[in-house]
Protein 1
Amino acid sequence: MNSNYFCVIMAGGIGARFWPMSRTNTPKQFIDILGDGSTLIQKTFNRFRRICPAENIFIVTNGIYKDIVKEQLPEISDEQIVMEPARRNTAPCIAYANYKIKEKNPNAVVVVAPSDHLILKEDVFIDVIEKGMGTASNNDCLLTIGIKPSEPNTGYGYIQFNEDICLPENNSIYDVKVFTEKPTIEIAKEFVESGEFLWNAGIFMWSLKSIFSAFEKFLPEVDDLFKQGEGLYNTAGEESFIKQIYQVCKNISIDYGIMEKADNVKVYAADFGWSDLGTWGSLFHLREKDEDNNAIVGKKVLTYNSHNCIVNMPKDKVVVMQGLDDYIVVENDGVLLICKKEDEQMIRQYVADVQVEFGNKFV
Amino acid sequence: MNSNYFCVIMAGGIGARFWPMSRTNTPKQFIDILGDGSTLIQKTFNRFRRICPAENIFIVTNGIYKDIVKEQLPEISDEQIVMEPARRNTAPCIAYANYKIKEKNPNAVVVVAPSDHLILKEDVFIDVIEKGMGTASNNDCLLTIGIKPSEPNTGYGYIQFNEDICLPENNSIYDVKVFTEKPTIEIAKEFVESGEFLWNAGIFMWSLKSIFSAFEKFLPEVDDLFKQGEGLYNTAGEESFIKQIYQVCKNISIDYGIMEKADNVKVYAADFGWSDLGTWGSLFHLREKDEDNNAIVGKKVLTYNSHNCIVNMPKDKVVVMQGLDDYIVVENDGVLLICKKEDEQMIRQYVADVQVEFGNKFV
């Protein structure tokens, strides 16, 4: 295992779309959403432990989630938990982690990944990340991962790649033509048919040298703020310094701030059973189904004349469901949701209504 | 209040059709099924307290429900709880109560009623029972109550009355032509259209003299058994005597054993908003509805695009229901049921399946 390899797991999200499983105090990344005994952040951590030494894995999150991170990842030390005092999107989060890693190892090669995505083919994933980290070690490039699309999904950003220009060492790593925002369904269909577009998985690999030089060039105002803290990172002075600069730091994504502008961006075209698990519907597609095509988590659920439902029930709860087709049925911690899968975009509204009617305790 | 008036409330039923609200250890009569703060047996008891002295009201039930009866009706004494050692239908239950009452007051006039029915117009009910008790005091008759049918319900027995022969003192009390079992829908429609049929509410009034003479004539084998215990009723010897004779006592209803055969049966045609609350569907018709015609018990239930549902939720449970039309949604004590109203006859099957799969605790 290469001791220069570091990992930054971004775990600050609040994930309202998986309510009532995800809650403000227990967002999606901290939930065993597949019902297989480990939470998404535990799965993510365990994947990257196969690539980096455990002590080189940093978790960036909000202070309110520090205890749950320590509980779910007992192997990591306090100083591996990077606490953002405010939400400023991915670029400041990455800049912050970069400076902390630089103090430990200026020759670091870093993989940055979300904490709450699903990877079904772990071995393929490990192979891709290991090869990608090798490429990032040996090239001044910003490497992102693009997923071969299986459908014209309008929930993802897309990356157009140049299929004529791939690396000599790896013919799955291409030059990038353009990053695009989430498309309409018509455009998404064209993207998929063209064969030139990949889903943007939000997973990045780079050497510290390459990413620092990109920040200096494209986001100098962000870089300047964090540079002032050199010497304070990983010391008692870090917390108050960070609190101060987060107040004035701009809110910007790494995609918009750097990846869309840099000319040394490359994309690793891969297929490892990836989903960002953005909605109950996306989870339904990935979970195992019973003979009626219901995806059920729960030990005591009986279904009659019900099909294509996604069900998450506490393991001790007895449930009899009859005559439900294409529904989401989820109970967690005193809250029950029954709604049609096709109307799942309304869940944000339900959460807002529940907050107004019954208080913060239930959201 | 007439101290000769006695009441026998039959509370031994197990009511599986209201599962999961009703459970083996808490059948329908012990549930606040309307969500208004009192259980059905409490409502029944409170109605009859307006007619009889409280100490003249007897509750016939199974020994396993003694504690719940005492808890829900703290005013009554242990000796007012008549415990049947086995289920033998209504005739033995009534014979038993008759002998206990005879020891206290041989001039008693008795009203017998189920514990788990709903009466919406209490004042009309009280008026009918008071007049009926007067008639039963002054006439050697077996008086039953017939409800003017509002629909061709196939869940009830019907009583055909002779509209030409009513009592001089009360022109709502008629001679009975025939008792009928639950009819088919076609026959039920004919019954309702004819205007000659009433629903059999299972509420009876008679003097002890009249009912004893009917038992002697039509069910002498039952009467002989209970007669052997004279002198033991309301003493320490009662329990073991009753245990013994229940082992050999036949299982027979008062309707089949006596009412269908006696020639001094009369029916009081009444309309006091009665339902036997036989199914969730019947309860739905009786409960208050919201603007979407949902009948909801629960303090924290939000509905979206849902209509004609009947919902019973624990008061602290937050529920979001979307896109459900004509469903039963009920949670109680660790069990959730979601099923179509039109398929509610399947609930017995669900209960049986849950018992097999998960054990007695949940049924």
Protein 2
Amino acid sequence: MKHTVLSVPERLEAFRNEMKAQGLDAYIIPTSDPHMSEYPASCWKYRKWISGFTGSAGTVVVTADKAGLWTDSRYFLQAETQLAGSGIDLYREKLPDTPSITDFLITHLKSGATVGYNASTYSIQDAASLSTEMKKHGIKTDGSKIIADAVWEDRPALPSGKVFEMPLEYAGTATPEKLSRIRECIGNAGADYTVLSALDEVAWTFNFRGSDVAYNPVAVGYALIGEERAVLFMDEKKLPAELKEKFEGYGIELLPYEELGIELKKLPANSRFLLDKANTNASIAESLPEGSVIITDISPANVLKSIKNDAELDGFRSAVLKDGIAMTRFFKWLEETMSRGEKVTELSAATKLKAYRAEQPLFLSESFAPISSYGPHGAVVHYSPTPETDTELRPDSLYLIDSGGQYLDGTTDITRTIALLPEPTDQMKSDFTATLRGTIDIAMARFPKGIRGCLLDAYARHALWDAGINYLHGTCHGIGHCLNVHEGPQSIRMEENPVKIQTGMVMSDEPAMYRAGEYGIRTENMIVVKDDIKTQFGEFLSFETITLCHIDTRLVDKSQMTAKEIDWLNNYHEEVYSALSPHLSEEERGWLRRKTLPI
Amino acid sequence: MKHTVLSVPERLEAFRNEMKAQGLDAYIIPTSDPHMSEYPASCWKYRKWISGFTGSAGTVVVTADKAGLWTDSRYFLQAETQLAGSGIDLYREKLPDTPSITDFLITHLKSGATVGYNASTYSIQDAASLSTEMKKHGIKTDGSKIIADAVWEDRPALPSGKVFEMPLEYAGTATPEKLSRIRECIGNAGADYTVLSALDEVAWTFNFRGSDVAYNPVAVGYALIGEERAVLFMDEKKLPAELKEKFEGYGIELLPYEELGIELKKLPANSRFLLDKANTNASIAESLPEGSVIITDISPANVLKSIKNDAELDGFRSAVLKDGIAMTRFFKWLEETMSRGEKVTELSAATKLKAYRAEQPLFLSESFAPISSYGPHGAVVHYSPTPETDTELRPDSLYLIDSGGQYLDGTTDITRTIALLPEPTDQMKSDFTATLRGTIDIAMARFPKGIRGCLLDAYARHALWDAGINYLHGTCHGIGHCLNVHEGPQSIRMEENPVKIQTGMVMSDEPAMYRAGEYGIRTENMIVVKDDIKTQFGEFLSFETITLCHIDTRLVDKSQMTAKEIDWLNNYHEEVYSALSPHLSEEERGWLRRKTLPI
């Protein structure tokens, strides 16, 4: 096999030739992988391969004589640079003059044309709406032609990372019990089977963790679960012998990863499948036996996984304690290093923090690429420093660091913003206080059982909105247990999400504000949903904040806070000091004491 | 014609005979009328006629040997009483053991059976889902057989109330301009026609008001609007000659009410109709010409109507001033009458308030049946006194009055809760203060342009939730301009509603709490959405509170409020006094001054 690396125009040419050979007039290449992962493995980075664009979101469309990349405002500058000379035009999403992909296809194709896409990179729902939209204009769609595989000259192999068993001590619930709960959900939905395609759902259900993808300890695989059967589709070389034996004992069948489609086709005709149409790839739907019915709902494993058991909650509490120790050492080191006038950059700071985390027991890896951002970089919402952008931290602005760890007993996600300058400006204090009030108001919320997360979002934004400020991302996302740092199905955000907030869910609490060209501010804690009081008006839930790390009180303007908010902050700091101090040196304790004094 | 009034069992027998004659195995009789009105005219009260049940919500299902009424918890007691001996079983909705109507039909019908309903009482959407559900069990549905009309022995005629022109001075926008805006919406949606079926949309578009229905100044009619045509389907005897002439001048065709279906069938085949499937009756969909496509969206007249023009807003401000004068006189009268030891009841109080309103210029009627409720009656959310329930107001509890007026220049809706006892209890004060804080926090809200109402609902509930209290109805509904006191499409409530809150919308602001067996508390003001500041974070909107009536400060516990909330209340009272006092007698002024002193 020849391994010459082609240029993007050469790839496009080869791609177009193959498109033509397979009778397609256009082809859509989204970012998704077959598992709808946030971080696709390299072998599925089709869109990056065809375009050279490395952002985390974007879709390429290729026709016989045009090619375009659609991406959002976070990536306009980066895409412009990376697409230069590629022959691919940049389509800036959500600008008034930018046509949608549908509009583009309608304009550039004639009735009777065919648009191709790889069904395994499209959700069932998106594939259906693409087909409906195109049909209106006499254009056909075909999800069965996988052009890229034929022309990608050095496509990486499927990842072959090893898998290890998640000890029951940390997982809390054994696989047979999880399978039986999933089966109960399948039955309640009136279905016969479900397919787990999200990698974290597979890892959670079968109590293993993997190493196929950066930051997310998952392994490439699928599962098929029915009343009588549980089949794990995974390269058996990944699995340790003891785990294979355990699976055998549980009656779990192990089949090669590639055989999901074959196995689905063998199931009885007219079977009923419980599948989440928005998060299951369309090639799975196309592999179902004749007469199958899809009952669409959130995957049962996704729902069950989001409600943490006691062992998982204990693990989270242990993980945030370790994280708090690392964060305290990091901020002390940062303050002292900078005050000695030694150079610290965004990257060197992140490296130091990782080293402090790595000293802690059961540390596996970071849970995402840290957002270590000085001054104006803090205002770039998804900024993550690279050697090209790395900037020195200077004592004249704010520093925001959003980071987390994967520990065997839990996953963490924490953001703190600190003043690097001795005297923060009034605007900084007022911005910081309004944002912090959001974090605190979510933390203190009591709310009726059964409500959707979006109803609480205004708690996070109230003080910011009052100041004429808003942020455009969500406030709270679910956090996996030694799994993906972003998980569903729940959320607290402005967008509608029908999922109810339930006791045992673990989430982030991260209101924010971004002053373009100046700085970004975010104080992010982890919260656990717990039962609160029961009154004649019903049952109420509330949150427990579990993150243990001081908040920079030099940035707090007490006069803008309510008495309850001030109490919360002072109590929180007392709790942080009590929990962390037994694990710190005397010097560290003294330093943390000063950082946690009441305001 | 014989006019013997039959008993419910006799009606059921006649109904079943007709059902059988027409080949139906079951029949569903909902509360809706062909216009999906909140208050159906008597001729459409099919469900009340067949069952004797007079509640505002409920559905009757009749089979050959069973009959049931499904209604919600507000009406369990009333329905039990009214259904006694009728042969109709009560099905209590939302109780765990209550089967749904679908379940009931599946259980009692065999595959091959046919369920009838009157398509004009079912929305397109509900008819479609009924058909889908029944099909799954081999049961057919038929919306074309109108059983009740054949057997209803003394069915009232269609209402023939007179219509008057809404002066342009109050309407603000002339009909040709409204038609052209509706046509723009039709064009933007890619449609050819729309049908207005909601009576308030018809009245708004054609700038008339009617008298066919209690409280809502509307008239029975439909409209068909396309690029070239505007047809009003209405009994021409309703219309004054001058208005008919005006319509003729505008090129508006006038056809009999009954001819909508005939006219729709005459339209060109393959026409595209912009219809709100959730709010348009299914018989309209069935009358569309061959090959028609329905583009579903909120009716353009509904959206346009919700955004008030300057003349309408000026009218609202005039109406709330008149309402405030009436409310002040009423509360002064109530206080003085009760302190003299004279008997006042819920009904006599409501009558007095109506009389004060009626003294005001341009008063037409009340805008709904007043909720005049003493003590425990206040905790019954939809209570409205009747001679049977009428209770004397005694100086030992709270009194809640929710009422409103239809004035030619605007519609009002206001609730106040006052202490009848000299020393309210701590619980009363704490309940009242938490509820009032909700009203104030909505009133003070600043929020980004473009958000959905449900995101603001937590502002209304924050203080209540903190106290372990909740209320199960919405917080803010739209209010028509000399039209329905409840109108859409916007709302602020826990349920998802995709409609964005926009400048010019007029709404209620009515957080509440209901302590069963003790009292209910609600402070309701009218608010207008207005432009607020524009910052680097975007455009913001806020509310202007326009209702002018004092709030009982004896029930306010200042220590539970924030400084901003206290300021709001004191400023509001200053505004109420300044606005009302020039219109009051010296004695009334003095009384109001005392009621509006700062806390």
Protein 3
Amino acid sequence: MLTIIGIGPGDRQYLTIEALEALEESEVIVGYTVYAELVQKFIKDKEYYTTPMTQETKRCEWALEKAAKGRRVALVCSGDSGVYGMASLVYELAENFPSVTIRVIPGITAALSGGAVLGAPLTHDFAVISLSDRLTPLERIEKRLRLAAQADLSIVIYNPGGKNRSDYLKKACEWLLEILPADRVCGYVKNIGREGEESHILTLEELKDTPVDMFTTVFIGNSSTKLINGRMVTPRGYRIGGGN
Amino acid sequence: MLTIIGIGPGDRQYLTIEALEALEESEVIVGYTVYAELVQKFIKDKEYYTTPMTQETKRCEWALEKAAKGRRVALVCSGDSGVYGMASLVYELAENFPSVTIRVIPGITAALSGGAVLGAPLTHDFAVISLSDRLTPLERIEKRLRLAAQADLSIVIYNPGGKNRSDYLKKACEWLLEILPADRVCGYVKNIGREGEESHILTLEELKDTPVDMFTTVFIGNSSTKLINGRMVTPRGYRIGGGN
């Protein structure tokens, strides 16, 4: 049995009860070093196996091998395991491990946890787009950002920065500024739900020159998004269209 | 104090620990009748106030009034309160209740819970779009769907059906079929995490003629999405681009 668990931001309080119970019932916990260490703070006395980033395939194969031998294995991912997480890779690799039962337990992805910190930026239609070009050509990322802006979707940007990608958010903002106004309400959250959490609301023009890292999640508002009492709020339209 | 709580699909196990604790600490629980009744199954001995759908403004104002009088109020929403939920409306209305402290607690939205049931359909970039035209013109919905398809985003459709909107998913599929192939891998989940849960994986052409209701969430794959051992899986690209 292999359970793929989204742990949310990392602290115990952000786990679902289903995720917590699955971790407690597991024998072996597998994950990227940073996230496995977060889990280790509140789930003790388990066998842990961690690999650094770029070792995803090795990590998932190891988890499947252990599960095929009858162990109860939990593979942990930050946020939701189905959003830029390991769930799809496990399903792909599991074709070689037909005996293993796989279960995915959803978790609070950064679009939701970061959105709650900023206010309510995603109350209407939105897109989630990663700026990481490790596995996706940059031209495809550019195309997706441009079309999402044309569609007037709120946009959540995952992986906006990182090693060798320090200017990617600047590039993304430049593309968006060809379509969206410079004063579009935007926001970002660093270290959501963790030590050092900070959040900022600013314009798209200001966002362009903001340094971010891989633990930052960025929010671009849609045409209705506004600043209300220090919060980034995208109305759904109840106050205009009806719903009284 | 007004805490806006996303409860996920509805059963206790899908709550985060943070959400459960906030419900337990509240005095008054406010919500749409259906969801408040789900909460009432596991949070007893509270004062409950419920309103039917289309009474959202009244419900949020009532919650703010109670909170302004010093009560500890929890406003519950299914899924995440920031995704087509009440969070933005509360922030808008709260301008008239400056003394009330507002806190948003994220929850498992249907894109995540439904995705976990189907497999891993959202492991790459995606859009979340509602087909409800109660508060959004249908032309805007059409435009967003078309652009999301052109962007090769996986698409999650919320509110695909309902009273007086029984042909909306058919319309949406017809628009998408002008851009996407008829055999595009799609899926849908009814009553996620509740009694009567059912899920199906099918082609876009087949989806077009599928009857759905307001408790259904629909997933349209991107160009890489495939069926693996009965699961809907959108690869992130680890097996092609690198990451070994």
